[in-house]
Specification:
The protein folds into two domains: 34 residues, no CATH class; 32 residues. Helices cover 63% and strands 0% of the residues. It contains four helices and no strands.
Length: 79
């Protein structure tokens, strides 16, 4: 991979390494199927406080938490 993409463009995680060879053979270049962003967002969602809410109300809680995270990120990036 380093020869193909260059070391500055390759940051594999352990889970991804387990499947990397097969996925490249099946799907071609990594940039066509890379999902790290979505996996990172799943980690973010798992960390949200749900206040014990079940379905329905929990979605609103997730939306509020996501908005808060995005606002904080935007605020920090302006400094």
């Amino acid at each position: 991979l380093y020869q193909i993409y260059g070391s500055e463009n390759v940051t594999p995680t352990f889970h991804w390494i387990m499947h990397m060879g097969d996925q490249i053979r099946r799907f071609g270049p990594v940039h066509g199927f890379w999902t790290y962003l979505f996996e990172r967002l799943n980690k973010l969602l798992k960390g949200f406080t749900t206040n014990g809410h079940k379905s329905g109300v929990m979605e609103v809680t997730f939306a509020r938490e996501l908005k808060r995270e995005m606002s904080l990120s935007r605020l920090v990036s302006t400094f």
